[in-house]
What we know:
Layout: H1 6-33, H2 43-71, H3 75-102, H4 108-112, H5 115-132, H6 153-156, E1 168-174, E2 177-182, E3 185-190, H7 193-199, E4 205-209, E5 212-215, E6 219-225, E7 228-233, E8 238-241, H8 246-251
Helix pairs in contact: 1-2, 2-3, 3-5
Amino acid sequence: xxxxxxxxxxxxxxxxxxxxxxxxxxxxxxxxxxxxxxxxxxxxxxxxxxxxxxxxxxxxxxxxxxxxxxxxxxxxxxxxxxxxxxxxxxxxxxxxxxxxxxxxxxxxxxxxxxxxxxxxxxxxxxxxxxxxxxxxxxxxxxxxxxxxxxxxxxxxxxxxxxxxxxxxxxxxxxxxxxxxxxxxxxxxxxxxxxxxxxxxxxxxxxxxxxxxxxxxxxxxxxxxxxxxxxxxxxxxxxxxxxxxxxxxxxxxxxx
Length: 255
């Protein structure tokens, strides 16, 4: 025995509630306008009458439109077919409403008399419903998403073209220079270590020492012994870890 997934049931009930709200809103508008001679009744009678006709007629329309939608997916063929097929039962519903609220006799002539007005209202209401629930065309392409910004973009501009697109492994301070370790080799650049750390703030990595920054993906192992630590990188490099910079690595679960 198969069961309907909960998310699907939730969407179904949400759509049903929206449909009922749509038909009820149309009924309120019709009651205020009082078309087809209904203006002769009191406002209360008009509200009851049009709610009965529109919500009840809407239920009939939904029941008919569901299989029609699978057979005729085109907007206009589906609209015409659904409106035409729902007109006879909705016309009968209108006749019953007139009989209950106004004592109209249920003769064939009285029942069939408003069929054209019923068709017009059904057509307009179903057209509005199809527009409300219209889906994007199958061939429509979603707007391309902006690619995520590269957090290393600013720092990469410091490197030569050969290593600008390489995978960054570590940055090591050497006097007034920085040795940049990448999977395409090392490169010595002129820059302050503090500026480099600022530019790398958005990247996934750690400043492990006052002269070292390492990429998180490059770490293979971390050891802590006698107040100092050492990170072994996948390329074989070993970066020192000072006590003051150990907290971030510890929070990441390395030791």
